[in-house]
Amino acid sequence: MKKVRFLSVLCVLGLFFSTTGAAWAVNLRLGHAINEDDVFHLAALRFKELVEERSNGEVSVTIFSNAVLGDERTLLEGLRMGTVDMGIITGGPVINFLPSFGVLDLPFLFSTPEHAHAVLDGPIGAGFFREMEALGWKGLAYGERGFRNLTNNSRPVERPEDLNGLRIRVMQNQIYIDSFTALGANAVPMAWTEALTALQQGTIDGQENPLNVIVAFNINESNRYLSITRHAYSPNVIMMSMRTWNRLSPEHQEIISASALEAAEYNRTLNRDNEAEWLQTLKDRGMHVTEPDLALFREATRSVYEQYEEQFGRELIQSILDAVE
Q1: CATH topology for 2-322?
Q2: Considering the entire predicted model, what is its pTM?
Q3: How far is residue 18's CA from residue 20's CA, in Å, rounded to a whole number?
Q4: What is the tens place of the pLDDT at every residue in 112-126?
């Protein structure tokens, strides 16, 4: 019996450590839920390259894309339990465990990518990382999905009143629901896989997502109109299980932290460099593009800020609004 237990322990340890000569090698399993063409995967590849090079092969990274290790909520649970070592996770699912992270979803909160980066890379973003540690996650860096924009198949949207009555799919996120309701739309929360079918069947009029998603999923086939509303900014988090982190040497921790920051910056650069191309692609596919006066939309969603002021705190919200470089 003792021998069986000893062998079982060795098998468990083998998931994390293996011997190469006289050195112990660390093998990290990194999961995300997106396909291999997405910037999430490209950032993961960049992270893998940097870590393996800087550690001289002592740390290796195996990437599992397409939700092979589970959807994002499942990945977050796995990180807490230590059954998954690392993940690249969008902000939405994080809110289910860390409600304060939801402040980042307030409508028209960020004016530019640089504004969002200043908040996430500064004391506010560091504060969220400290809160994550209590949940079993080691936040390493903030990448991004990017700014979200509106599409529909009914009419151009240039003013808030143009949204009146439109059935717009939103994420299953109460702030998004409240924001589009304030704009006069009929907000319809549903899973993305269901939304694609609903768009094709015409049971909803439109949806909202970053340009790269609109291109990748050929939303132009069901929606003719694109409005550059930039109504919300979606970050992602490159994170590690605290259980895994605590087993690493200080030298390996330093390599992983630095590499995650560089991979996140690479993610942001890819978004910045490709945004004009994505927009042109959608125009070439026949989408009618409008650039609304966003001041009108900010004014129309003022009630959402009043609604969530008590939950998030006026001081935190104002400090984010003021963090413009």
Answers
A1: D-Maltodextrin-Binding Protein; domain 2 (3.40.190)
A2: 0.86
A3: 7
A4: 999 999 999 999 999
